[in-house]
Amino acid sequence: MIMRLFGVSPLQTDLIGHYPDLAGLRRSAKSNAWSQVAAHFEQLPVRSDQSVAVRVVAETPGSERFLEQVVNSERNSSLARTLLGARFIVMAWEARGRTFAKDVDPSQWQFFFGYLERAERLLAEATAMDPTNAAAWTERVILARGLELGLDEGRHRYEQAAEHCDAPYTAQRQLLQNLCPKWGGSVDELHAFARDCLKCAPPGSLAGAVVANAHVEHALDIMMAEGALAAEEYIGQREVRDEIAAAAAHTVLHPEHRPWHGWVSAHSVFAFALVTGGDPRAVPHFEALGSRVCPYPWEQVYRRWKAAFRRLGNHRRPL
Q: Which end of the chain has fewer CB atoms < 10 Å from its terminal CB, N or C?
């Protein structure tokens, strides 16, 4: 089934390919239809994770011009400030590029921090206007990392997001990045946070994927220090693979699981972690994904990551 599917279908990496119900939101953003954009968010379930919908608007090229006009006209709109702040965060990372920090030139850093500072002002206004705006708090977790505000500030922003969202998977993934050694955290903090997310999560939620994220980030840290073979040996340990599989069974593979925005990311990281460890329990995640996949964490390891995803999805064999 997967081989036939990959043989005729390109991989779906765009958010609309993952979540077709958000296509109307993107069309509204492209056509500068603020009333329709706002109406879409009003229709989302109360206390749901709205961060993916926010990113659909934020990743729409040129949307900052439209959103700046809305912010100027809608003086009390927390949503407008959230969307424009998120757009500036996207633009900041585009300006920085994906190279190592040592390879980023001064002009790139100038644009990077300039956009992040503008985003921080807007998102601080958004959360002041509406302290229950979990999506804005989630974006501010990213800013705590990019602006180097420290782990305590990142945790505070995450706690605000989690307080006002029943399933804060996006915020959990973002704080996990803050806790990585490369951002000043440690692998012990990574795993402690991920296990706590799983422990507190209702069956069928997406939170268990954070356990897989933590092991992947641990492996990536080993890869940078000791090479790919050492990273594969780490994630191939039986106890590591068992913990990842148990997290999947409690969340995305649980009978009570109902796909919500973010499920493609969750299955993508489970598939990567288990197949990297040579574990056949990767199969149901590849089957759930079909031709959908999130670039993370595949592109962190493979130069031709799409080909690697197809190959491993077809053959289900260890790296």
A: N
Query: Between 302 and 317, whose confidence is greater?
Result: 302
CATH of domain 32-165: 1.25.40.10
Q: The pTM is what?
A: 0.92
Question: pLDDT grade, residue 315 (50/70/90)?
Answer: low
In this predicted model, what pLDDT tens digit does every residue of 220-234 receive, in sequence order? 999 999 999 999 999
Longest dimension (CA), the chain: 57
- List the one residue out of 91, 192, 200 whose CA is nearest residue 146: 91
CA 264 – CA 275 distance, rounded (Å)? 16
Q: Tokens 């995803």: give the residue.
A: 309
Number of helices (H), then strands (E), belonging to the chain: the values are: 19, 0
Give the residue extent of every domain in the chain. Answer: 1-18+179-319, 32-165
Cα separation, 186 vs 210, in Å, equals 15
- Rounded distance, CA 205 to CA 260, Å? 9
Helix (H, G, I), strand (E, B) or coil at 292: strand
- Residues 6 or more apart in contact with residue 177 via CB below 8 angstroms: 145, 183, 217
φ, ψ of residue 121 to 5 degrees: the values are -60, -45
Q: Distance between CA 201 and CA 164 in Å, rounded?
A: 15
CA distances from 269 to 83, 191, 206, 304 (A): 26, 15, 11, 17
Let me know: does 313 contact 6? Beta carbons within 8 Å: yes
Calculate ∠ Cα 244-249-253, nearest 5°.
120
